[in-house]
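Q: Give me the 3D complex with magnesium ion.
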Amino acid sequence: MKTCQVSVVVPCFNEDEVIDAFHRALICALGSTRRTFEICYVDDGSSDRTRLRIGSLATADRRVRYTSFSRNFGKEAAMLAGLRMSRGDCVVLMDADLQHPPELLPRMLELRRCGYDQVVARRDRTGEGALRTFLSSAYYKAMGRCMDVEVVDGEGDFRLLSRDAVDAVLAMPETNRFSKGIFSWIGFDTVSFTYQNMQRAAGRSKWGGRRLFNYGIDGLISFNSRPLRLAIHAGLALALTALGYALWIIAEVALHGVVVPGYTTLLTTVVALGGIQLVTLGVIGEYVGRIYCETKRRPHYVVRETNDTAKARALPPVDGRRTEARPGPPGPAVERSRARPSGATAIGASRFHTMRQFIAFAAIGFINTAVYLAVYVSLNNWIPYLAAHVVGYVISVLGSFLLNSYITCRTKPTWQALFRYPLSSVVNLVLTGTLLYIGVSHLGLGKNVAALAAGILATPFSFLLARWAIDSGADLARRRTAPAGSRAGRTAP
Ligand code: UDP
Ligand code: MG
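A: Here is the predicted complex, encoded as structure tokens.
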């Protein structure tokens, strides 16, 4: 291809059902612009026939180029690979599900001719659920206040970038990529227009609630350090509140004499403060985790197969350098990853993983103690206190099971796991009782100090048991539902 005026980059993940219809619509729209073009498909480790389909599109048409990842690395990595592959004077980023209408391409190119470096197609929210619309606009409003870059509701990745803008995006080496922020950060003359939101032509969206939630956190953290500032402000506000409360107590004592200390207030305050401290630790941990990822300088993705002969075949930077791929066999060039994580890196990563899980487990423990207390104190006035204790206990165990499944172990809760889970509470009860007894009777510790020490010492064991209950329960459920053939594991090719 001598000169290419337009590159269209399309990240695809399990788009088997829609990719052919998308390709036909795209060719039709690009044909009407009378520009030379190329289409860069990036298969993001699809498990359906997407890779084969884009492979055959490339065989049939030389203007189609593709790269296929060794596994699913996420849309951000796929867009990065597509931008690296692109050679056009301008690049259009589009989804493969026809939610980004190809008919808008002529208009975008027209605006590019007027000199804009970024032309953004902004979708309205037609046909979207009321809850999602509300949550999205609330998120963007909050982001507007928190972020150092401007991120606009409805403006996504569907946009045209000039070659200068593409080069600026590619010059940003970060591992944790948040494209909406990056596009805004690079600046350049930008214009946007609104189009009517379209539903997916076929297939399913890959953005479930959890993925969207994590993406929201990425957006919040990628472009500023304000959450850390917020933690400082919250800490100061709490310290001042505590000071005011202490002054009030002193005044009460001076005016009315010594008052009986409120056990519930004290405990709730301690638990709330513990919770806030752990949340703050979590925020700091997010940043530290990101620094950890950035320092490893891992490639953004691993290429399994590509028919690209130039730029995209240069592997992503490792140790700040670009590694040129070895020349492939005749026909479509094929790169296969030989990368294996080194033992030390794998052990480091697994320690980090366990530490993250443990912190989450401890934080959830605090939250559940607060939940138990809240339920117990509220029900106490209405039903016998032992019944209130049982209800509070059951709710807090269920809550802790769900939170530990979703947050600590990042797995779906299963009935099998739920049946095993109370075991960790029983072991915790026996262990803390034993340690308490040893502390008080044999070591001569005060009863309160011994209870605190027993609680702290037993936490790691409870954590390991709770994790075992959730993980093994999930495994068991998977094995039960897996087809007979797959239970034996995959056979080598
Ligand atoms: N996509 C991808 N990798 C992923 C998830 C999605 O390349 O891990 C692609 C997907 O094939 C589609 C685009 O990103 O072309 C947008 O995905 P989706 O339609 O699921 O997102 P939504 O439109 O629901 O936000
Ligand atoms: Mg979509």
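A quick observation: The CA atoms of residues 420 and 469 lie 5 Å apart.
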